[in-house]
Specification:
Structural class: mainly alpha
Keywords: Coiled coil, Cytoplasm
Function: Regulates ciliary localization of the BBSome complex. Together with the BBSome complex, controls SMO ciliary trafficking and contributes to the sonic hedgehog (SHH) pathway regulation. May play a role in neurite outgrowth. May have tumor suppressor function.
Helix content: over 70%
Number of strands: 0
Order of helices and strands: HHHHHH
Shape: rod-shaped
InterPro entries: LZTFL1
Subcellular location: Cytoplasm
Subunit structure: Self-associates. Interacts with BBS9; the interaction mediates the association of LZTL1 with the BBsome complex and regulates BBSome ciliary trafficking.
Length: 308
């Protein structure tokens, strides 16, 4: 789409100051190359005048030969300049695309816009405004900075900072995951201690049942019932705590996978997914076994319940 600019901005290209200065530098380079090539073409005609136009009259064949020679020389000069201009433009595009790829960007060009007469006239007007003698800006004799490599400039620094930030977050999530795994292991150990205490209590009840008096037996059964109720409450609390730890463990793993995915996009060298750890799988197996043991203990405990 052609952009119509106001009259007092006709010499603008719709770019910021930095990019417009880059355009001016390129146009200055192109004007210099164009001037040199025109001088070369002029010299071709001058050389012809001085070397061949020494006779007062020429035959048709001689004129044809002179023009053919001049045509070949001018054709060669113009072709060389067009080829050089095309190659120069390719190198300029290469610089821009290389910078874009450092940011993982994909630029697109619209070749049809290169023949847009209105835009071409706008560029011509811009060149006229920038390079006519009345408006020509003074050119300082300074060394123009080369295109800074992105792997040494601010872009790489920003990418490195982002990578370091993601790595730090990755390490924090790993530490959090390790803490949750330790808490889960401790919960399993406490659960095992309670199960051993229950087994010991059941063994003591079985060994002493035949030797205790009837009144003491009733008191002992009440004590066992109270301990059983307390054990059930404690076991329920431990189960809830274990469920919460498992949920936290799953959340931490999901966060860790998300951070690793972001890190792979920035550096493309980190791991794409964070696999579940062996400790977690072992924990699940141990937990399953312990749950089966608890079910078995409950069945055995039911045998010692007082009969109505």
């Amino acid at each position: 789409m052609v952009q119509h600019l106001p009259a007092h901005h006709r010499a603008e290209l719709g770019l910021n100051d930095h990019h417009q200065n880059e355009v001016i530098n390129y146009m200055r380079f192109a004007r210099s190359k164009r001037g040199l090539r025109l001088k070369t073409v002029d010299s071709c005609f001058q050389d012809l005048k001085e070397s061949r136009l020494v006779e007062e009259t020429f035959t048709i064949d001689e004129v044809s030969e002179v023009l053919s020679g001049l045509q070949a020389v001018v054709h060669s000069e113009v072709e060389s300049e067009l080829i050089n201009t095309a190659y120069t433009n390719v190198l300029l595009l290469r610089q821009l695309f290389s910078q874009a790829e450092k940011w993982y960007l994909k630029l697109q060009t619209d070749i049809s816009e290169l023949e847009n007469r209105e835009l071409l006239e706008q560029v011509a007007e811009f060149e006229k405004a920038e390079f006519t003698s009345s408006n020509k800006k003074p050119v300082l004799d300074v060394v123009k900075p080369k295109l800074a490599p992105l792997n040494e400039g601010g872009t790489a620094e920003l990418l490195n900072k982002e990578i370091l930030r993601l790595q730090e977050e990755n390490e924090k999530l790993k530490s959090r995951l390790k803490t949750i795994e330790i808490q889960a292991t401790n919960a399993l150990d406490e659960k095992s201690e309670l199960e051993r205490a229950l087994r010991d209590l059941q063994l003591d009840q079985g060994n002493q049942k035949d030797f205790i008096k009837a009144q003491d037996l009733s008191e002992l059964e009440n004590t066992v019932a109270a301990l059983k109720s307390e054990f059930q409450r404690t076991l329920s609390d431990k189960t809830e705590n274990q469920k919460s730890l498992e949920e936290n463990l799953a959340t931490a793993k999901h966060d860790l996978l998300r951070v690793q995915e972001q890190l792979s996009l920035a550096e493309k060298e980190l791991e794409k997914k964070f696999q579940q750890t062996a400790a977690y799988r072992n924990m699940k197996e141990i937990l399953t076994k312990k749950n089966d043991q608890i079910k078995e203990l409950r069945k055995k405990l039911a045998k010692y319940e007082p009969e109505d």
